[in-house]
Each structure stands twice: as C-alpha cells, then as structure tokens.
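Job type: complex structure
Entries:
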Amino acid sequence: MRLWSAGNDDDARPAPGTPVFVARDLTKVYRMGEVEVHALRGMDLELFAGEFVVLLGPSGSGKSTLLNILGGLDVPSGGTVRYREHDLVGANERLLTKYRREHVGFVFQFYNLIPSLTARENIALVTEISRHPMAPEEALALVDLADRMDHFPSQLSGGQQQRVAIARAVAKRPDVLLCDEPTGALDITSGKVVLGVLARVNRELGTTTAVITHNAAIAAMADRVVTIADGRISKVLRNEHKASPEDLAW
Amino acid sequence: MSMLDRKLRRDLLRMKGQAAAIALVVACAVAAYVGSTTTYRALRSSNEEYYDRFAFADVFAELRRAPATLASRIAEIPGSGTVETRIVADGPMNIPDFAEPATAHLVSIPPGGPRLNRLVLLSGRMPEPGSDEALAGETLLKLHHLHLGDAVSVILEGARRTLRIVGTATSPEFIFEIRPGDLLPDDAHFAVFWAPEADLAAAMRMEGAFNNVVLRLAPGADRQNVLDNLDRLLEPYGCLGAYGRDRHVSHRFISDEIRQLQGVAVFMPAVFLGVAAFLLNVAFSRLVGTQREQIAAIKALGYGNAAVGLHFLQLAGVIVLLGTLVGTLAGAWFGSVMTKMYALFYHLPLFRYELDPSAVAAAVLLSLLTAFAGVAGAVRRAVRLPPAEAMRPPAPPRYRATLLERLGLGRLLGPVGRMILRSLGRRPVRALLTAVGVAAAMAILVLGAFLDDSISWMMDLQFRRAQLEDATVTFVEPRDPAVVVELRGLPGVSRVEPFRAVPVVLRAGHRTWRIGILGLPASPALHRISDRGGNLVDIPAAGLMLTDKLADLLHVHPGDDLGVDVLEGTRPRKTVRLAAVVRDLIGLSAYMELDALNRLAGHGPAVSGAFLSVDQASEKELHRRLKDAPMVAGVLLQRVAVASFEATNAQYLLFFTGILVLFAAVISVGVVYNSARVTLAERERELASLRVLGFTRGEVSAVLLGELAVLVVLALPLGCLFGVGFSALIARNLSSDLFRVPLVVENSTFAFAALVVLGASLLTALAVRRRIDRLDLVEVLKTKE
C-alpha cells in the first residue's frame, strides 16, 4: 500500500475493471440523539473503475453511511477501506479533505446547493479549488442548464437544482461520483432527466459512479446492483443489459 | 472574488437586520471608547503640554509678608529650581452694570513677565506699570459683556482701585478658576487679574515685599524636603504652609477629571463589547445551525476546516468592522463635543482635539477580539461539524417538562404558555443572557439618569435643605461679634449667623493637612451640616469634627488627639480631640464650636464672617451696601452660585444622558431584535404548522413574542439591579476629595429606564410580528425537515 503523498499521485485513471474501492469488514456505530445506531455491521465491497453501481436498500439499511465513508466524509468504527492506494481509515481530517478535493464528486438527495450562490457560482465554488476543472459553463452545458447559469437555487426547480449539483460534482473531473438518493426528492419526470445526466457523465467521462437509492426501479440502469440490508450486503447482481433511464418507470 | 467571499457578501445581505443591530452595538462600544479615550488623551496631553510650556510651578506657598531679600534664601533650598515671589490679593470687585458683589483675585506680574505660571496672552497687550492697567480672565469679559479698555474697580487695603483691562490672559494655575474656599466655581462673581508688580505692591503696601511664592523643583529633587525647608523659612512671615501640586485646587480638579474620563473609557466600552459578543454568539450559533448542510456540502466538495472557519470569522469580522467604522465616526464627533465642553469649563488654551489613530487602532483590535471571542464557539462547531453527520437531519431538539410544570403548575398554562416555557427552558443560558443583555441596556439608562439624580440630590441637600443662608459675608480681618448687630441692620437681612474661620495645619503623626477650621454655633440655624443620608449634624460642644474622608487621609478616629498648628495671630500649637466625623458630600471640612475655636486660636470672641438670610426684594440694596463696605473681603451669593453650577451641569447631563439613551436604545433593539429573529428562524416550521392547525396570526405571534416578553419582563428587575451596580461603580469613580457622589437613584429613573427598554422592545416586536404575519406557510412546510 502506498503512503499518502503530498502531490497528486494518481492523475492517471485506472483501467476499466480494476478495483478502485476495497472495503473489508466495515462497521459503523453512531449516536443519534440518545439512540445508538449500528449502521454497518461488517460489510465487504469492491467498486471497479468506470462502472455504474447502484447500491440498493431500504431506509436505515446503512447505504448512506457506506457512501459517506467511501467519500471520505466519515470514518468507519471498524474494518478497512481503501481507495486505490489510499487508506481511508487511518487518514486524518486534512488528508480526507485533500482526497475529497482531488478525487470525489458528491451529489446529495437535497442538492445542498449554497442558496446564496448562483448556479454558475456554485460550480465555481468547486472549480476554484480543483487542479484540472472544466469551465462552470461547460459543466452546466453537460447537464443542459446553460440557460440557467445565473439563477439562484431558489429560482430553479428541484430537478434543475439536482442537475446543477451534478454539474458541480463533475466539474472538477472527479474519479468517482457518489450520489446519495439523487432522485429522492424529485418527481418521476425530473428524476429521469437527472438519471440521464448521471448515465451520460458515466458514459462520456468514464467516471466511476455509485448511486444509492431505495428505489429498485433505478437498478435496471446499473452495471452492477448491490443490495444492502441491515448494515450488510445481501445480494450482488450484474446487469447483462443496462436499461436506458428513459425506459425506467416507478 | 472567490465564491466563498460571494457567499459571505450575500449571507451578510440576508442577515442585514441582525448584522446592523450587532454592528450598531459595536459602534456604541467604539464610539464610547474612541470618544472618551481621545478626549482623555487630548485633555491629558494638552494639560501636560500647557504645564510644561508655561512652566506650571511644583510648589506653592502663601504668606502674610516677607521681604524681597528672602527670595535668594528660598532659591538656596536644596532641590529648588526657579523661584518666583509674587504679590497676590483678593478684594471685593465692582463690575459696571452688575449689582451683585464679586471678588477679584489679583496676581502680580514681575518686571519682564512671570517665569513660572507664565501668562498666555489671549487678546490685547501686556499692561504698563503705573497706569492701573491689568489683564483679566476671558470669562469675565464674556459673562459681563466687557471689552478691552473697560474698567472694573476693586477694594484693596480699604481703598478703591481701578483696573483697566488691556488684555485677556490665562495661566496654568487657573485652568480651573475657583475662589479659594468655595465649593463651586462661580465665574460670574469671581475673576482673576494680573497686574504689574509695582502697581500691586503700591496698592497692597507691599513695596520690597511679597506674600506668595511659587517654585519649580530641580530635577530629582525631594519635594517633601523642599516643602519642609520652605515651611521653616517662611513660618516667621505668616506662611500657612507650603504645598505641592497635589493640593493645588486647579490641578486637583483637572487631574480628577482626567482620572474619571479614563474610568469611563474603560467601563462603558466593556459593557457594550460584552453585549456585542453575546449577540454575535447567538447570531452565529444560529447561522451555523441553519447552514449545517451548506457547511457539510462545502466540506464534501473539498474545502478544508480552515477555509470554513475563516469564512465565518470573516463574516463576523466584516460586521464588526462596519460597526467600528460607524463607531469611530460617532466617537470622533462625541470626542469633539466633549472637548468643546471641557474648553468651556476649563481654561486650557492649548486644548485641541485630535482623532488619535492609536485609539482607533485599539478600538478595531478590541472589537475584533470581542467578535472572535463571541463567535469562537459557533465557528468551532462549524469546523468540527463532521460532514457526514451534517447530511443527516439534526436530532430533534430535546424538550422536557419545565420545573414549573413538574411542580404541577403546567395545568395553569395553556398550550401557548407551555410552549413558551419549554422553549425558554430548553436554552436557559441563552434566555438568561438575552435577559442580561436587555438588563444591560436598562442599566445604562439608570446610570445616565443616576448622575442627574445624585447631583440634584446632593445640591438640593447641601444648598437647599442643609445650608439655608442666602449670602456669605467674609471680613478682611476677624472682628468683634458685635458686628452681627450691624449686619442685622442691613436692608433685607432677616437672620445673621456668625462664623469663625481659622487656618490651621492638622497633624496626626507624620501626616498633615492644611485646612481652615470653620467655627459655628453648636446648632447652626442657617449653615447647617448634613451627612450623606440627609441628617443634620450638630457641632460637638468640645473638640473637632472632620469630614470622614479627611479623617481617613489623616488616619485618625473619633477619640484620637490631633496636633493643631494655628496659622494666625500668636500661632499657638495645640492638641485637640477628634470628637466626631461627618460623612458629608462636598469638600473636606473641619468644624468646631465657635467659642471653642476662638479659645483654640488663643483669641477672644471674634468672627470672620457671617451667613445671612436675605429677603429677595431688598437684595439689590444689600449688594450695594456690602460692595461699598471696606471691612468686607467678599460676598458669596449661594443661590446664584448654585444656579450657575446647575446650569452648567444640566448642559453636560443633557448631552451625556442623551448619548446614553441612544446607546441603551441600540442595545435593547439589538438584543430583542436579534433574539426574535433567531427564534423566528429556528421555529419557522413550528409556527407555520400552528397556523396550518388553525391558530390565528395573533396566537402564533404570541408564542414567539410571548417568549420575548417574558425575557424583557425578567430583565427589568435585573436591569434595576445592574443599574444600581453600575451607578455605584461610577459613583466611586467620580468621588474625590472635592465631591462624594452619593448613590441616589430615584424611582422615576427606574421608570424612565423601564419605559425606554419596553418601548424599544415593543417597536422591535412589532417589526418581527410583521414578519410572522408574512410567513409563507406552503413554502415553509414544503422545505424538508
């Protein structure tokens, strides 16, 4: 295993099919108010370069926790997890920040746009601190929102906000795109548009994409579907034929 | 501009109401600090520069008469530098078109001009010897509408002399002009003149002699040693005891003023900065709370903790700097107005106001430190906020039944009442601090009005309830008590109370104090002595009674014996028992029974003057008669002096009270508004839900505003308490040998303070109420939990 180094040590994208994330025996316990929650109870998982994975599970199954750990937002209570050569368990806050900044794009259920910044500025927030970003305009064009550039989040529909969030996530050309219920707050029409954008990013930019959802219908568009229940992986399924997002129905 | 800076700018715009409230409180702190610090520095440096450039003496001595040849022996005292001998005289003065008796204080100008206490010629020219010319203080001309070339007449040694005013001047010994022995300055009835030495010597029959010495100490000289030597040398010539600057009345007034200003410069800003820190704390805790997800997102996007922390610190910094800017401008204005007032009150020719950059820098630094202290907790929370946790909705706030409810009182409250109680109970520290903030506003109001209360009470007690005389007549020499009959025969005089004044040095061990003992009848009917509680005090039949402060200075207690060196007549040295101390309000005094004092002085029955009760209708005629009486050294008109003091004082108090009311209103509005906005933001959903459930706007407002009302009502008694505390602190700061400011707070002051706070709170509540009314129910409930 390589140690963390100061520079950006892995500009080169791994070849499709090589494992980028390897997690072993992950556990996570956290307190929620006065209640102790066992979110992960010993989970083993690999994610491969360039694939589109759907992590499927009901609310409280631990899928968000898993995503947060993969994204360096959280650290597990036990077990190991590596992103390529990087140990995500032993890393300190500063190294995790650097990891997020250089490798990870996040898309959240509730978009988490900064309400006081316009669409373009929300993207610039990321491109300002990235090494090889695309222009905010380019990113917005990718999600078909070039005409909404100077709108504030409050002036955009939910689907549009989520597309801005996706543009913000991909603008820095991340190695992995982690999406937490990206359609959870959207109606079906907007949801399909957003999923279309995610599929397009995965296809055109080759970004490893993990989408977590409790919506089983989305699983059809994935390369692989990992089903999670009660903090463990219960089933892994490979789709021989990926469905197009337009054909999904829920 | 970076995107975080843009966010900062827009966040600031969004919270502009709160930001403005906080900035204004900071502005008050900075204004108070900059205003009083710069005035304090201006006063101190002008004073020092004046003393330095115009050679203010270090040592002063008054005597009866000494030959001019003694001057060289004074100069030989080890440690004495420049020595100047002078002739100083006081005499009744007649001012054209001014019926009331006044006193002239004349100081000789040696040939070639004074080398110590040098003159600042403000207008006109120096007087020529042998031509009755003199310089006068500027106030005299201003108050009596006199012009250069006009003349006044003065009775010196029983003869009327004309003084033609050819110029106006001042000198460092008269920064504060007060008639020796008076408690209040009285510019209308007292004026300083400078006349050529030869003229004054002729008028006072002092050719080849002097009756006043001033000297400067050589560098490194032992002052006490010089004083002792000077006393020994001058004692045969009727010296009443040499003294240093510390007992020079003008110097003491101005040093007290400087010390007091310094106190104000620390105290007021500290209160305001405390409130500002609290407001910032509440506002930023809330801001970090509402921006949980934003902070998480920013961190998820790869921004580090330092960037997030800096972002919030910058936001606080901008608010505070805006406040500092406004405060500096207000402070500069405040300082220049104060300076003008001091210039009016003190005769400081070099007095100029400068906005001292180091004071501004200190204010900026202080307020930034305060801001960072205030937001430190919130920023730490933002920095420590684990992004993954921020993604999850916050755990629901923990509410519990309050203590009152657990005691079974809950049934007395409706649901709204219970919501209010529980909400307060959930954040008891914040609730308490909010109440403390409002209480601070009220305390500042109490403080402002307290000064008026106390000074009015003190003046009323001293000059209306205790001392009933209308005029005080002082004789040139002690006279036979039969003079009382003569005075009673004067027009309009209904009552005469003779007094005796004997200059002495009190000794207790190595401690000494030079003072005039006032001899009064055992139970004075006019010049009555009152203690701080307003109780009249009898003069002990035997022994001495001292102001408690003087007894403290001498370290003596009732029952102790004091050495008394009488400084007149045969100058006996005696011992007298301290019979009592009196906790009086103004000046340092020593009292004895009239006959006992005469016996102590080794004198038969004699009086130095008398207190008169005068019928107002005959006042003019009485003034005329007294002005022409050669035996009368001076006449003090109590009522006029008090009125003039009160007029000057009222001007100050109006200004200061006005400023303090403004400050207090800013704090009340700031605290209440901030608290309301934060609570509104936190509970928007809850309030909207209530509306959906069918609560009316009024009922919903009651939940929020009721909470504030509870806090404001709680703050009122707290504010009274703080107000009294602040006032006690300020009273201590203002108390000096010259005045003991009593702690008097009238009920009307509490009522006034409460009204201002309630008014400001009510206006703020109305503004917030409008926001509640406009609450968009659908919008609020549509957004996620």
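Summary: Chain B has five domains: 1-58+252-395, 59-251, 401-426, 433-465+647-785, 466-644. Chain B touches chain A at residues 2-4, 6-7, 10-11, 14, 293-294, 296-305, 386-389, 391-392, 395-396, 398, 784 (CB under 8 Å).
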